[in-house]
Amino acid sequence: VVTHLKIPHKEHNMNLFKGDHKKEWYKKINPAMKIPAIKDGEHVMGESLDIAKYLIRNRRIKTPFYPTDDPEKIDQIDKDCDLATELSEATRAVAFNLYFGPIIGQKVASKEECQQFLGNLGKKYDGIEAFLEARGTKFLNSDSKRVV
After folding, report:
1. Where would a tag sit more exposed on the chain, N or C end, judged by fewer CB atoms within 10 A?
2. pLDDT reading at 138 higher than 80
3. Which residue has the higher pLDDT, 136 or 124?
4. What percent of the chain has pLDDT over 70?
């Protein structure tokens, strides 16, 4: 984001495998220990979309990606971002609990838990499709038949 918006910045490369994101100095910037995060003066925050919105608004940057002078467009973008975040979280839950978790030694999800994770992901897709249909946009998922 900062590169695209041409904001001078200092980068810190993080090695997730070595746990750089769990070090005390980074917890002060992002207590959730997720990447990315920024420190802008005394203001610290994480989450990519929130960072982008903050920088665009605070630096009064003109960009077609987040046109701050068009409240209707901003509302639409924010709704789209919220749906994308929900889908991302549901996808992450499936990926971790059904695939990556067992690889790193976490307990294997039961059949019922698997169905719950997949069902939740399917509901998120259904919600996005209903939202896109209501505004006349093509569906994300071209196959109306989903197996859970």
Report:
1. C
2. no
3. 124
4. 92
pLDDT tens digits, one per residue of 49-80? 888 889 888 888 888 888 888 888 888 888 88
In the structure encoding, which two tokens stand for residue 104, read together? 């790193």
Q: What band does 116 get if pLDDT is binned at 50, 70 and 90?
A: very high
Name the nearest CA neighbour of 109 among 90, 91, 88, 95: 95
- Does residue 37 contact residue 29 with C-beta atoms inside 8 Å? yes
CB atoms within 10 A of CB 117: 20
Task: Report DSSP letters for 84-111, one per residue.
Answer: HHHHHHHHHHHHIIIIIHHHTTPPPPPH
Contact of 16 with 35, CB cutoff 8 Å: yes
d(CA 51, CA 30): 12
Contact 134, 123 (CB under 8 A): no
For residue 84, what are the contacts with CB-CB under 8 A and spacing of at least 6?
Answer: none
Q: For the chain, what's the residue count? A: 148
What token pair was written down for 43?
């203001």
Reading the block at residue 23, the tokens are 């070090």
C-alpha 34/C-alpha 53 separation (Å) is 18
